[in-house]
Design goal:
globular; alpha+beta; single chain; four-stranded antiparallel β-sheet; 4 helices
Length: 122
């Protein structure tokens, strides 16, 4: 029984460590122009969220608006976090026609964008 418990613990530890190492996180933050209307911003939110369904390389997509009380957001209000298995998948997403169409939607209302990619660690 003790051997089984040790093997089970090693298996779970291996799954956790390998799943963390296999996640390329692509973080995109938006600062909208002061002239952007709530309707335009909603259109951007919906269009970005739909990329998960349109681009098969996207493993997951989470997003939300800033709720930090630290006041260090520098005007950025929206954050989108996409997960990919490989850099090749991330690159395919960037070049995908659905992503390029999204760039055309967000561009006119965007004041600034911040993007960072990292391999998740636990």
């Amino acid at each position: 029984m003790k051997t089984f418990a040790i093997l089970w613990a090693l298996l779970i530890a291996g799954i956790i460590s390998s799943s963390a190492a296999d996640k390329l996180q692509h973080v995109v933050c938006f600062k909208f122009k002061g002239t952007a209307t709530p309707e335009e911003i909603r259109k951007v939110e919906q269009a970005f969220a739909q990329l998960k369904e349109k681009i098969p390389q996207v493993v997951s997509l989470e997003w939300g608006t800033n709720v930090s009380k630290e006041k260090r957001d520098k005007g950025f209000t929206h954050c989108f976090v996409l997960t990919f298995k490989t850099e090749k998948d991330r690159d395919a997403y960037i070049e995908h026609p659905a992503h390029q169409a999204f760039v055309g939607i967000v561009g006119p209302v965007l004041d600034d964008v911040f993007v960072i990619d990292f391999w998740g660690k636990m």
